[in-house]
Amino acid sequence: MGKDYSMTWMYQSKTTLFPHTKIDVAKEMDKVYPIKGRRYHVRHIAEGKDVIMVELVESYPDSKTKKISRTPLVLVLEMENGKIKTGRHYCDPKLSHLYLSEAQILKAFKGKNKKPLIIK
């Protein structure tokens, strides 16, 4: 990530329209990504001049119930000098609370037999 990296979530949280990291990203990341045990199943990556788009499924355990949340999402990453300058995170956060199974998620990828890249 570049030194002036920022990420914007393209939805409305309980308190903010388009929440985003601001100045001290290293410090803010603990608030943005507090859940341990996240996994990312990368389905597709596309790139162009100074932009990368990643389609993936983010999975993580609920800290209280231990149920697994699975959220399909797309990241748009703008690059500068080979590093991520800024990004936008597109998803429907309501899907996270449905605790969708892997089989349910795979229905969205009907006809796509390739194995996802898994990042832990």
What order do the helices and strands follow? EHEEEEHHE
Number of strands: 6
Average pLDDT rating? 85
- Record the strand order, biggest sheet: 1-5-4-3-2-6
Question: Treating each run of at least 4 consecutive H or I residues as one helix, how many helices?
Answer: 3
Give a description of the structure.
This protein is mainly beta and 120 residues long. The chain is built from 3 helices and 6 strands. A 6-stranded mixed beta sheet has the order 1-5-4-3-2-6. The radius of gyration is 15 Å and the shape is globular.
Key terms:
120 residues, mainly beta, 3 helices
Helix and strand topology:
Layout lengths: L5 E4 L15 H8 L6 E10 L2 E11 L6 E13 L2 E9 L1 H4 L5 H5 L10 E3 L1
Parallel strand pairs: 1-5
Antiparallel strand pairs: 2-3, 2-6, 3-4, 4-5
Overview in brief:
The protein has 120 residues and is mostly beta strands.
